[in-house]
Design a protein that fits this description.
This protein has about 325 residues and is of the alpha/beta class. Helices cover about 60% and strands about 10% of the residues. The strands form two sheets. It has a six-stranded parallel sheet with strand order 1-6-2-5-4-3, with helices on both faces. It has a two-stranded parallel sheet with strand order 7-8.
Length: about 325
């Protein structure tokens, strides 16, 4: 059967299924669902855990061998099968269906993989898991759903955030659940449980270069060059490591260049954003598209070469901040 992530806790209170499949491209929810299953299994006596990584050239006979082997340390155990490609292939599909034809009573099979496409969901191995166990698919949280997710997570940590605080965090983290969870945990450690004001949330966020750097690149992409230069100089004065700033600058420049390449081929920018891992937040797609149009393709290529100069300056005695300012200036176009 299929259940949603928010139904998992109640499901596990009714007992452990012989097989669970977790799939999706949202790492925070995938991690938490896996941890919830492992914790519940441990409370039911599944004290041993064997992890198998089904990468390229994986020997699928190992699954049957592990299932047939006797545990030396525990009566019950978890076999955790990770499939990074999201597709087990012909041999893997057969190995999974063969295992589920006669699953071991003392063994829980936990399969973790990226998003399973619709055509894969119609295959025998997937439908067999649906019939024999539980399938949980996780999806990125949409912009409209992000405030509620933040509110629920804050309440889980014993925090009460104002509506303005929730909106502020939702805007700053842009669908990144892991970043939002880290900020909430930081607030709990700093202020303890109870009510948290917008001022406290903003002060906590301003102490993290993650947010300021994103604001920096938004200013550069929207041709607010003076503001972008002021921000990067502030980051330098505050002691933000140059490699941290370079990471964000390089990511945005390369992404904008990819959009510019797509535009030169008359390919819709949406195709570029769809290929990104993690995906580009919807609210930033228009900003990146308009920013990419501001320079000809060769201009973006020149800025990519500049990124190598920044990296070299960091590794030597040069000044990477000057070169990064040149990149920001170059992003404004003609």
């Amino acid at each position: 059967m299929k259940i949603r992530p928010d139904q998992l806790h109640n499901h596990l209170q009714q007992g452990i299924a012989p097989v669970y499949l977790l799939s999706g491209d949202e790492p925070q929810q995938l991690l938490e669902c896996g941890d919830t299953i492992r914790h519940s299994a441990h409370s039911h006596g599944y004290d041993e855990r064997q992890v198998m990584e089904a990468a390229t050239h994986f020997d699928w006979d190992i699954l049957a061998a592990e299932a047939a082997s006797l545990s030396l340390f525990a009566q019950r155990r978890i076999l955790e099968l990770r499939i990074p490609s999201g597709k087990p292939g012909r041999e893997g599909a057969k190995a999974i269906t063969d295992y589920l034809a006669s699953p071991q009573e003392d063994t829980l099979l936990l399969i973790i993989l990226p998003k399973v496409e619709k055509n894969q969901q119609k295959t025998k191995w997937f439908t067999t898991i649906e019939k024999s166990g539980v399938v949980i698919q996780v999806w990125p949280v949409k912009a409209a759903e992000m405030p509620r997710w933040i509110q629920n997570r804050a309440q889980h940590h014993g925090l009460q955030l104002t509506r303005e605080s929730i909106q502020f965090l939702a805007q700053q983290t842009e669908g990144n659940l892991m970043a939002a969870d880290q900020e909430i945990e930081k607030l709990r450690i700093t202020h303890g449980v109870g009510n948290i004001t917008l001022q406290e949330v903003a002060a906590s966020a301003s102490g993290s270069a993650h947010f300021t750097i994103f604001e920096l690149m938004d200013a550069a992409l929207s041709a607010q060059t003076a503001r972008a230069l002021k921000m990067i100089r502030t980051l330098k004065v505050e002691g933000t490591p140059a490699p941290v700033v370079l990471w964000s600058v390089a990511r945005e420049v390369r992404l904008a260049a990819s959009v510019a390449e797509a535009l030169s081929r008359r390919e819709p920018p949406a195709a570029v954003f769809k290929r990104q891992k993690p995906p580009v937040w919807q609210s930033r797609q228009q900003l990146l598209t308009s920013g990419a149009r501001r320079l000809p393709l060769q201009g973006w290529y020149r800025l990519i070469k500049k990124l190598a100069e920044v990296d070299q300056a960091i590794k030597s005695s040069g000044d990477p901040w000057i070169v990064m300012e040149e990149i920001l200036l170059g992003m404004r176009g003609a």
